[in-house]
Design goal:
Length: 673
């Protein structure tokens, strides 16, 4: 890595920002980065010293094997130490730092009338009560608890309650279908499901309990129901009289299994001794799409995740105690786990917890909230920025955004146009943009600028975070120096990296460590420029990134082929102005079936039901046949070109029947379905 001297247009941190920054310049970054690699033990020990350890660490901070040829892959952080992450993110502040009255969250609901303020003391008390409820329902250390909740405070209460008693939370994004939920419950073998009666998303009322019940029914049918109790939160918006549009909402009820949250919490004590866990005990499972189509249960453990999310939050958002921080993600994804719950709370931060969507009830909703709470640090996804860009500057001009100091993005590469708009219009040219590259698997940011230290190049995630050693490999696994493009891999672990895939260590080793022994393989392509800046070029496996959500082509294909009329399906990505990428599906129908508008609608509905609305295809085209090699492998490379209407097809010599291509071009979809 070199100190940048590029002629590219760069954006330098302001003096004002550097004045009180934790890492106030590029040289401080380099010095700390060097320390993190040369003396990792001392580096991570200093971080650990901030926290409470029931049994202090005696052994090494990090132990690992990243080389499959030398034995099992493992990573351990602070083995032998005992702690509790919930204690560290709540009790420590309330008891030791007197932060009880500090606001932990400003909750903003789907509609602006819905809001509430939760202090650290209140949060601790609710978490303890929920922990006692879970215990009463029979949850013990090591048990899994599936959580299928919208972005309401109860989601945070439940996840931290699990952490407090040593139960392993498995949060399933509340936009997922009953099928996806059931699959995740069965894989985790959870004993409890926590859900809500319903939720408004924009104008739409969704009967969450009904979806949860359908999922449980699916588990039962597969004789695989581990769930003994379903704890049901009454959504705050459905408690009020006006919300009693909830008369429309029939909450199905099974008195054997279902328990109302309010009733269970009513007389639950608000003190609960934390369970003192081993540093390497599991903290949570979070499912992420796998290229085989079956979701992978990424498992994170207690101590390493605490150190890493806490440190990345502090440095990447240059956190100070008077900040108001807002991450717009949903806690159903890793960004919410690490940067709405654990990282910010570990730092005693004040955050906004937002349930709604950016365009309801009006397209200035984000800006209204920034003004209302005087948000200083704002973290969102490129897809949201592109969506809001469409409405121009006017919606922003109504609000005072002068409180903003740092902006962040996550989830996918940010295109320069969106970067410029974010910088100029939202940040008024004043705020650096931290483009944070990371994954469910990495637990926290791994490539990222530091706001007062790193000169920015729009579209680049810039440099590695402390303790992280990226490298770029070519197809043969050779390391590439200097300017290069290839596979992004990491040479060694940092404390926050996942430890395994739940109940499938072999799949974990095969997926991430087999291709290039000695390295963790991200699955992303990457370019390093002459100044040493890293630029993510996108997935190089069969994964798609739609609006920042990863999904596998295999999982969408599996859903499409469940339709009775479908013989075969192949799915590729196509660039999309707002979503980044969208799904373009090629569908071959069985003989004598006719491809028409109804088929397209049925297929879209099927994918929505099987996976969830995020996976709704934008294009579904009739494919009388698919381009295949002589050995029968679908040539996706060609399908991607057809989806993009790119006639420059390259070498077609391996194609079994070249005529197929012409036919497919003639059936291309011009407009979205
Ligand atoms: C992509 C989300 C470019 C990448 C935290 C990665 C990004 C996948 C960026 C992980 C970024 C995430 N620039 N690409 N700043 N951030 N990605 O597991 O392809 O939902 O592998 O974690 O998103 O998605 P996941």
């Amino acid at each position: 890595m070199v100190v940048p001297d590029s002629k590219d247009k760069m954006y330098y941190p302001s003096d004002d920002l550097q004045k009180d920054a934790h890492v106030p310049g590029f040289n401080s970054y380099l010095a700390l980065y060097r320390k993190s690699l040369e003396t990792p033990e001392a580096f991570w020990k200093d971080v650990a010293d901030e926290f409470f350890w029931k049994t202090p660490p005696v052994g090494p901070m990090l132990q690992y094997n990243f080389d499959v040829t030398k034995g099992n892959i493992y990573v351990k952080c602070m083995e032998g130490a005992k702690t509790n992450i919930c204690y560290n993110v709540l009790d420590r502040h309330v008891r030791e730092s007197n932060l009880g009255q500090k606001v932990a969250y400003y909750w903003e609901g789907n509609s602006p009338e819905q809001h509430m303020t939760i202090t650290y003391s209140q949060l601790l008390s609710q978490v303890c009560r929920c922990a006692n409820v879970l215990k009463r329902l029979g949850v013990k250390k090591g048990d899994r608890v599936s959580i299928y909740l919208p972005m309401i405070p109860e989601l945070v209460f439940t996840m931290l309650a699990c952490a407090r008693i040593g139960a392993v939370h498995s949060i399933v994004f509340a936009g997922f279908s009953s099928e996806s939920l059931s699959e995740r419950i069965m894989d985790a073998q959870s004993s409890i499901l926590v859900t809500a009666d319903g939720v408004y998303r924009g104008e739409k009322l969704i009967n969450l309990k009904q979806i949860a019940d359908e999922a449980l029914e699916k588990c039962r049918k597969k004789a695989s129901s581990s769930i003994t109790k379903c704890l049901v939160v009454k959504h705050p918006a459905l408690r009020t009289k006006s919300g009693a549009a909830c008369n429309k909402l029939q909450t199905p009820w099974d008195s054997e299994c279902d328990v109302w949250w309010d009733e269970a919490m009513r007389d639950s004590p608000d003190e609960c001794e934390p369970e003192w866990l081993d540093a390497e005990d599991p903290l949570f499972i979070l499912y992420t799409s796998g290229s085989t189509g079956k979701p992978k249960g990424v498992l994170h453990t207690v101590a390493g995740y605490l150190l890493y999310t806490s440190l990345t939050f502090k440095y990447v958002f240059d956190h100070h105690h008077d900040d108001v921080y807002w991450c717009t993600a949903d806690i159903g994804w890793i960004t919410g786990h690490s940067y709405i719950t654990y990282g910010p709370l570990a730092n005693g931060a004040t955050g906004v917890l937002f349930e709604g969507i950016p365009v309801h009830p009006h397209v200035g909703r984000f800006w209204e909230i920034i003004e209302k709470y005087k948000v200083t640090k704002f973290y969102t996804a490129p897809t949201a920025i592109r969506l809001l860009m469409k409405y121009g500057q006017e919606p922003l001009q109504k609000y005072d955004l002068s409180s903003l100091r740092i902006l962040g993005t996550v989830g996918e590469p940010i295109n320069p146009e969106a970067w410029q708009w974010y910088h100029k219009v939202v940040g008024q040219g004043r705020c650096p943009i931290v483009d944070t590259f990371w994954q469910t698997e990495t637990g926290g940011h791994v490539l990222t600028p530091l706001p007062a230290a790193t000169p920015l190049k729009p579209g680049s995630a810039t440099f590695p975070f402390f303790g992280v050693e990226p490298t770029i490999l070519n197809e043969h696994g050779e390391e590439l120096e200097g300017e290069a493009e290839g596979y992004l891999v990491f040479r060694k672990p940092w404390p926050g990296i996942m430890r395994t895939l739940y109940r499938n260590h072999e799949h974990f080793e095969n997926t991430y460590f087999k291709k290039f022994p000695g390295f963790y393989v991200t699955g992303d392509g990457c370019r390093r420029d002459k100044d040493g800046y890293y630029w993510i070029t996108g997935r190089i496996d069969d994964m798609l990134n739609v609006s920042g959500h990863l999904m596998s082509t295999a999982e969408v294909e599996a859903a499409l082929t469940e339709h009775l009329a479908v013989a075969e399906a192949a799915v590729v990505s196509r660039p999309h102005k707002v979503k980044g990428e969208c799904l373009y599906c090629f569908v071959t129908l069985k003989d004598s079936r006719e491809f028409n508008h109804t088929t397209v609608e049925e297929l879209k509905r099927l994918v929505r039901e099987k996976i969830g609305p995020v996976a709704t295809p934008d294009f579904i085209q009739n494919a009388p046949a698919l381009p295949k090699t002589r050995s029968g492998k679908i040539m996706r490379r060609i399908l991607r070109k057809i989806a993009r209407n790119d006639k420059d097809l390259g070498d077609l010599s391996t194609l079994a029947d070249p005529k197929v291509v012409e036919v497919l071009f003639s059936h291309r979809c011009e407009a979205a379905a």
